[in-house]
Amino acid sequence: YGQDVNPEDAEAFAAQIESLYPDVEVELLPGGQAHYFYILGAE
Fold first, then answer.
1. 26 near 14, Cβ under 8 Å?
2. In terms of CB atoms within 10 Å, which of 3, 24, 27, 34 comes out highest?
3. What ranges do the domains of the chain cover?
4. Terminal CA-to-CA distance of the chain, rounded, Å?
């Protein structure tokens, strides 16, 4: 998550994704990027 996102909000966002998609693995990393709140990747 980006530099302007607090960790509690990032955890809540990840929990929402996990609840919507229970078969998907969610990994949350503090990237500290300046221009984006979140960067999502899929494999």
1. yes
2. 3
3. 1-43
4. 18
Amino acid code (one letter) for 6: N
Phi-psi region of 32 (alpha: psi -120 to 50; beta: other; left: phi over 0): left
Give me 16's structure tokens: 């929402």
Tokens for 20? 């919507």
pLDDT (tens digit per residue) in 1-43: 999 999 999 999 999 999 999 999 999 999 999 999 999 998 8
Q: Which spans in the chain are helix H?
A: 7-20
- Calpha distance 4→25 (Å, rounded): 24
